[in-house]
What we know:
The chain is about 40% helix and about 15% strand. The chain is α/β, with parallel strands linked by helices. The protein is globular, with a radius of gyration of 22 Å. The protein starts with a helix and ends with a strand. The model is unreliable at about 1-20 and about 310-315 (pLDDT under 50). GO terms for molecular function: hydrolase activity. Keywords: Hydrolase.
Amino acid sequence: MATSNDIVTATKGQEEQNVLISEKELFDQCGPVHLTAIDWENVAHQRSVAASLVQGVYILERDKQEKRKGSQALAPPWWRHFQFELYRVLVDDVDSCIFGAIYKFAPSKSYFDGSKDKSQRFVIAFRGTLTKGDAFSRDIQLDVHILRNGLHQTSRFETAIQAVRHVVATFGSSSICLTGHSLGAAMAMLAGKTMAKTGVFLDAFLFNPPFLSAPIERIKDKKVKHGIRFATSVITAGLAFAAKHKNVNNQSGDTFVALSAWTPCLYVNPSDTICAEYIGYFEHRENMDTMGAGVIEKVATQHSLGGLVLSFMGKECDEPLHLIPSANLIVNLTPPSDFKEAHGIHQWWKPDLLVESKKHQFT
Length: 363
């Protein structure tokens, strides 16, 4: 028979366990439960499912950290609700943390209603930086590699691109997509660019992808903002022409045109300084073309000003991750309460989300 001390101890243990569970980890409380039927041609549905699968990767690592297994695991609802199954987890060989997952669409027989199926068969998802647990220090190291344009040199990316190549080689590329959030979006973008350079163009849903530059987008005065971008473009284009004339080694621009056929979906929030510069990056191209300076911008957009300067100094500089020719840019116009919400993954499956979408094609 249990004593009063046993009951107190058990109650205390349950309370401690509940503290470790964040409300945002629970699909029934914070997930897109409103999506009871998925229309794969609906862009809002696509966005919500992709974001949920990324959240599933976050929770997989949290389940691992908190030793939640079986019925106690919180991750499975984030993919089972959409009739996906976990095909494989991707583990970093440095700290053994889960940073990605491959999901396989496995619908029940009753799922199909006779209409043409537009669903993705395999989704390869990557999480962003975790601020809690054992994965934090390794994630921060990867964030630093992004700052240095060196993500492609990490063992985590090597694991990721090998997984992508395996799925493509095994199942083909037509029904495979990449998705990720923050650091994970950078991982997915780099994987997408790497495959695109070989002629394989994968669908990609990239949430809050990092864009590393001065925070020009935060300037409220449009004339000042445009003036800074115009001056930067002129200087960048001038250095690019000079570098070509002097045969200065610079990797930016070498494969830019070849990548133009790849059109990933970029989901950004203007209040998130980590990704907001994508808005100005594409908007400035159109402004330059309108004012008759499209030739200058066509050259400038293929290069990094910092990379060109380093090249002239005789230093090697890898291609910045954020230089992409084409994209479907989806901007969340719903005002966030704070930066955490503006950068978070949860915003992207809200049913009342106000977004503005525009396709930018490099020609």
